Amino acid sequence: MPRKAKTTPADSSPQDEQMDMLPAAATGLPPDWNYEATVAEVEAIVAQIEGGELELADLFDRFELAVNRLRQCEAFLDAKQKQVDLLIETL
Predict the structure, then answer these.
(1) Mean pLDDT of 76-86
(2) Is 73 exposed, middle or buried (0-12, 13-18, 19+ CB in 10 A)?
(3) For residues 10 and 55, what is the distance between their CA atoms, to the nearest angstrom?
(4) How far apart are CA 26 and CA 39, in angstroms?
(5) H or E segment at 77?
(6) For the purposes of burial, counting CB atoms within 10 Å of the CB of 24, is it exposed (0-12), middle (13-18) or buried (19 or more)?
């Protein structure tokens, strides 16, 4: 399948711009948010929890933070799936 030439801002369509903006608009995540960094943070939190060294209150705080970060990841992935679906529809 031939590759589509990379577009420049001058020849991009409003639809292209919508697809670029979809994750941020759909998830409310800041522009500098990073999926891989967030997953690494969750993994570190899980390791802390599994380590058994946290006080109970700290354990629940860390667990709550991990759940919130996982929700961010889920929202990001959902938005990306919508973006892929839109791209497939426009083939």
Answers:
(1) 96
(2) middle
(3) 56
(4) 19
(5) helix 56-89
(6) middle
Three-state DSSP string of 16-55: HHHHHHHHHHHHCCCCCCCHHHHHHHHHHHHHHHHHCCCC
d(CA 51, CA 64): 17
- Provide the CB-side half-sphere exposure for 63 (13 A, CA): 10
Own/partner pairs for 67-71, CB < 8 Å, 24+ apart? 69/38, 69/41, 69/42, 69/45, 70/42
What pLDDT digit, counting tens, does each position of 12-32 carry?
454 445 445 454 556 789 999
